[in-house]
Amino acid sequence: MVLLQRLWLQDFRCYEELDIEPGSGVTLVVGANGQGKTSLLEALSWLAAGRSFRGVPDSALVRTSASAAIIRAVVTRSGHDRTVEVEIAPGGRTRIQVNGTRVPRLRALAETVTTTVFSPDDLQLIKGGPALRREYLDDLLGVLAPRYDAASRDLERILKQRNALLRGGVRSADDRATLEVWDAQLARVSGVIVDGRLRLLDRLATPLRESYRELAGTADQTRTNDAHGVYVTDWADVSTCQASSGAERIDRLGADLLGALERLRPKEIVRETTLAGPQRDEWDLFVNELPARTHASQGEQRSLALALRLAGHGTVVEVTGEAPLLLLDDVFSELDPGRTAALVTNLPKAQAIVTTAGLLPEGLRADAVVRIHGGRLVGL
What is the pTM for the complete model shown? Predict the structure, then answer.
């Protein structure tokens, strides 16, 4: 289990300075809206993912008029205490240290801190576009295995270079030869990423279905309360690829993408962008066999979003053997009493930081209470 022992903030968002020691179970962070509760969770999630879970640029995290924001935490993981410190400078280079040693890559953060964030914005995982669902899968993969984190960075780099070539015009034999080089690299890394996504979806299928059933309840006996997802791509035969595994599946996926890129080349040259690859794939989610994005009620969509977080958390525990820190950002205010009770019942055993403008729901006991006002600690 990942345990946060202490957190310091300096010039982060509205915090000039903050120093807290959370409880080992549930820590309740109380305050009115706009006082800095979510910012506290945002700092913790940055330590795990190297970015804000709210999707804002790093420059927005630095307090107005400050030169840099600092996040420092003492975390116990695998029985060892680790001190991680991040300095975020607007327009500058982010500095990351673990136990006083500077580390060059964000990957070192995930090896020190892992979090599962529950936020009202999670509803967009269901209602929003496919990029959010791809990000959900790739974030989980990055926590589960370093090779997927590296593959995602490679994909971003390759697409940037390939699209730049397409925008500049593919006119000469040298241009076409260079494009073929990028095609081969894109095919290789895409095979790794999609293979990882398919492996992950196999793991997620059962916990997603079970979590959704628990959260959705059984008040309507005419509904099966089933949830599942289908991976969709227009450049590979996923059903055929799923019959293979390992290097064979990665090679097959790569070959499928090379064939698609060859067919699409005239269109890509005209449109000046890459038209096939994992960056365009979709994970369609269904509730009771109907598309969740367009046919599920708001309550069903909220249950499904929560189920995604619970299923992802459980998968990380299963693979790594350690429970991530739970961060719940005012989620209970968005739920009806039935779903609130179901979420409380099904929360995993882990240290949790819970923000609220009111009281904890029945059944959830706080080991510590932190009161925030205007970016300041006003009581414990």
Answer: 0.94
